[in-house]
Amino acid sequence: MDPEAFLDLANQVIKLKMYPYFDVAHSLLCALAVREDLGSGAQAFSRKHPLACWLSTMLVIFAGGMVANGLLGEPILAPLKNTPQLLIGTVTWYIVFYTPFDVGYKVAKFLPVKIAASAMKEIYRAKKVYDGVSHAGKLYPNAYIIMIIIGTIKGNGAGFTKLVERLVRGAWTPTAMETMQPSFYTKASLVASVIFVLDKKTDLISAPHALVYFGIVIFFVYFKLSSILLGIHDPFVPFENLFCALFLGGIWDSLAKLLGKGQPKEETKDTKKTN
Q: 20 preceded by cis ω (within 30°)?
């Protein structure tokens, strides 16, 4: 592709309006995530506990804004003042859980629909990460770590509220902590936040901002579609394993185990001789 045409495409992507289509895709996939997390008893639960079902779905949809606002000392419920987005979330929740013969859920799960919605959600995620970094940068211009944290949470807020979201539905899962087992979306949002911070606050990245933003969008969309179509769920794992082995004690722990296995055998031989 011609460089000028590519840059023009990048500028068009960065100017995309999220409302209403990208909001619909985001809300639809969030409702699907709640239903799939409920498992086989999702339909029965939605009939018996509609309020808890709705609250947990809204918490997933608005998780990034709520958590980020809480950390920045802003009103936690402020994201809910966006009435059009709240209506979109409610309508998609109803479609996924309550349409006759479960038609809404089946259509949402239909592979072409899911692929299109997933691609749109990843574009939405890139926008959320960028907005989080920009907003934190205005409040704390020189606090790079705060910008990265807020950008990461904006990108995958649902992962950080999973414990509370399940608790709303009456399920207590204390091990469901994103800090203990971060998902790919948290890691990807973290990487994107770092890149946006470097782009905004340093001279290390010389490319135009639109190209940087477009590159993040391509990164998100590519790996999301790879997850759906090819089953590639976390491409960061090999790099994490290598890093842990080199810098977080992996090699030394392995050597300690090897040396430790040899010592008891020698001790048992010595004890047999003395006996």
A: yes
